[in-house]
Amino acid sequence: MNSDFLKDKRFFIVSLGCDKNRVDSEKLMGLLQSRGCTLTDDVDAAEIIVVNTCAFLNAARKEAIETVIGCNARREGGKLEKLVVTGCLPQKFVGELLGNLTEADVFLGIDDYDRIFEALERSYAEGRGQVDMVGCGGGGYIGERVLSTVGHYAYLKIADGCFNRCTYCLIPKIRGKYRSYPMEALVREAAGLGELSELILVAQDVTRYGEERYGENKLVELLRKLSALGNIGHIRLLYCYPEAVSDALIAEIRDNPKILHYLDIPLQHSEDRILKLMNRKGTRAAYLALFEKLRREIPDICLRSTFIAGFPGETEEEHEALCAFLREARLDNCGFFAYSREPDTAAARLKGQVPQAVKNRRVKPLYREQAAVSAEKLRAEIGKTVRVVCDGVDYERECFAGRSYKNAPDIDGKVYFHALRAVQGEEYEIIINRSDSYDLYGCTKEYQDEETSV
């Protein structure tokens, strides 16, 4: 069978999980489009649905399976012919999925996108049986992309896999060892993304870029080459391992006008004993010293982190100490998660597993502590003029929604503002007149003047 027949099929892509998965989905869409296939944003019109899955946590695996089952329901009386499951879930758990998740026709892993045409040919030829091609792909770097973000920002995935062996994390067993993508290919990819107000660099750990490929860290060099591109307005860094935030990187962020003064540095905990159990290399003192250095070198730096509550063996005293750390660290934004006991991880075998109810209870005061810090920081913005890129209209609030350099898409708060007019992707100076514990509110001077004159 010739795969040209797939050009007559309409593909609908479901992307679950993180922004790194989003980039994988965009590259799959680029690959399909490059072969003349038709993409649709109408799931009911699709003959082929591809679900790109996450498997990092049990909740993500549950969501993935429920999504596949929900998509499969469209076969009855609908157009759906084939259901493809890709990404992390089949990569790690295909042995459990085969014969059980019978709703799926095709399974592909994280490096098997180049085999999707062959897999679908087999599936159409063989009928309703399951085609398993996990681990059969050529892997490697794929440059084609169809962006799924709003038009003015995009993610650039600079590496896959992970060097770190955190005891709670499945990523190395799903994604493998850290693999930096070729610098020249990344620069070409970024240059082909169109006019962007913001390019967001992602990886499991962006700070280790280039070490295994080039024998030395090449993140600063990559940042300089990306900054030289005329189509890139600003660059944002996500997921920086704290011990790898070097003096050279700090200086580049400080001195390069294209790099936003924002760092996402996942810490996971503050207390030394728990960090050691997590196989994290940092300490409470080292983390606080890093924040002090960053604020000294870049006074307006915005810092974000994530933390796990209820890790095995965590005592009430250590939980209280983490709450105190949040008050002392005074981070701008944080995410908090109850520990999830994942199969095939070292932490799952640790003694002292914390009951789920206790884990859930411990998350709440962490949010309260950070909300108080964030509210105070945001109140300090009232009366100031902030540069904000417009992301679009918030119809529920009947105003525009945007982000300052302190707000990464989807994970941080927003700036809601009124203006006589605003164009998506353009920057505006917004006078802040109100805040809460998460968002800022304001208007342009022109809007303020018109309201005052009425």
Distinctive features:
454 residues; alpha/beta; Rossmann fold; OB fold (Dihydrolipoamide Acetyltransferase, E2P); six-stranded parallel sheet; 14 helices; 19 strands; 22% strand; globular
User: What is the residue-averaged pLDDT?
Assistant: 95
Low-confidence segments: none
CATH superfamily of the domain at 3-132: Methylthiotransferase, N-terminal domain
Shape: globular
Helix content: 25-40%
Physical arrangement of strands within the biggest beta sheet: 2-1-3-4-5-6
Report the sheet-strand fraction. Answer: 15-25%
- Structural class label: alpha/beta
Radius of gyration: 23 Å
What is the helix tally?
14
In short:
The protein is an alpha/beta fold. Among the domains are: 3-132, Rossmann fold (3-Layer(aba) Sandwich), CATH 3.40.50.12160; 385-453, Beta Barrel (OB fold (Dihydrolipoamide Acetyltransferase, E2P)). Helix content is 34%, strand content 22%.
Describe this structure as you would to a colleague.
This protein is α/β, with parallel strands linked by helices and 454 residues long. The protein is 34% helix and 22% strand. The chain has 14 helices and 19 strands. The strands form 4 sheets. A 6-stranded parallel β-sheet has the order 2-1-3-4-5-6, sandwiched between helices. Strand 5, helix 4 and strand 6 form a beta-alpha-beta unit. Helix 12 packs parallel to helix 13. The protein is globular, with a radius of gyration of 23 Å. The mean pLDDT is 95.
